[in-house]
Amino acid sequence: MAQPSPNTRPDARLGASGDRTLDAEEVERFSRLAAEWWDPAGKFRPLHQIGPPRLSFIRDHAVKHFARDARSLKPLAGLNALDIGCGGGLIAEPLARMGASVTAIDPSERNIAIAKGHAEAQGLAIDYRAVRVEDLVAEGQTFDLVTCLEVVEHVPDVGMFLSACAKVVRPGGILFLSTINRTMKAWALAIVGAEYVLRWLPRGTHQWERFVTPEELGQHCAAAGLRETRFEGMTYNPLRDAWSRAPDTDVNYLAVAIKPA
User: Fold this and answer.
1) Is the pLDDT confidence value at 226 over 80?
2) In this predicted structure, what is the pLDDT of residue 10?
3) What domain range includes position 210?
4) Residue 167 has pLDDT above 80, yes or no
5) What is the CATH number of the domain that holds 251?
6) At what angle are helices 109-121 and 24-32 packed, to 10 degrees?
7) Do 88 and 111 form a contact (C-beta atoms < 8 A)?
8) Which of 208, 207, 257, 201 is nearest to 229 (CA)?
């Protein structure tokens, strides 16, 4: 495997289909794995493992931003939420359990079918749609809280994609993101380690040149009209086989941004 240059920056802004905000090959890759979304020991095991720190980050910032009771079991009650690139519903379902009225979208019809079936079995009412965020922009829809987790590193043109994401955040609303930093450490751990050595993920899941630094993500958010972007890392403890929130953003990191009222 060739080692990438630390100064490499992606020049290609088009997916295989010529689309700037969607790569059809990436969609098909995840569609083929759709049946495994809810298997905590399967191909999506890493997403199950990082679920707790991702959700605590969302909950903590949402409670503070919307001045909610941190002790409540349903702190998002009365809020409408959108999960972009929802996959099998690993984030949409917890958002619904926290009281939000949830819409969740994914370009893969197979992912949406799996997500719908699982939510119905749990007695959760989630509005799942096999559409793209641009479709909701065209409809003029906006939401109090928008999540887009582990998605931007699979998108050809991050700036254009985040511009669309920002448009579905209502004024005064909040956007949550999570992705992977473009560092040599991330290449070693997220690609070589996770895909080739530990085989947590199928080979080819990630392309290092599409990783996004916090500085770049912050610039894209600002260009999209979002403010107060904050970052926090997620790190893995091999002794406990667990992930937690941490200041270190060298590999996996979370972000939150506000749309001015």
Assistant:
1) yes
2) 46
3) 24-258
4) yes
5) 3.40.50.150
6) 40
7) yes
8) 257
Question: In the predicted model, is pLDDT for residue 219 greater than 80?
Answer: yes
In the structure, what pLDDT confidence band is assigned to residue 19 with cuts at 50, 70 and 90?
Answer: confident
Look up the pTM and report it: 0.90
172 within a domain of the structure (yes/no)? yes
> How many angstroms separate the CA atoms of 95 and 102, rounded?
7
Tokens of 65: 């931003």
10 domain residue, yes or no:
no
Q: Report the alpha-carbon distance of residue 210 to residue 212 in Å, rounded.
A: 6
Q: How far is CA 7 from CA 4, 160, 195, in A?
A: 8, 22, 22
Instruction: For residue 190, give the DSSP letter.
Output: I
Instruction: Show Cβ contacts of residue 89 under 8 Å, excluding neighbours closer than 6 positions.
Output: 37, 83, 104, 114, 115, 118, 119, 126, 128
Least confident range from 16-30, 34-48, 186-200: namely: 186-200
Q: Please answer whether residues 229 and 165 qualify as being in contact, where contact means their C-beta atoms are separated by less than 8 angstroms.
A: no
13 domain residue, yes or no = no
**If you average pLDDT over residues 70-91, what whole number do you get?**
97
Question: What are the structure tokens assigned to 68, written together?
Answer: 């909610």
Alpha carbons 154 and 87: distance in angstroms, whole number: 13
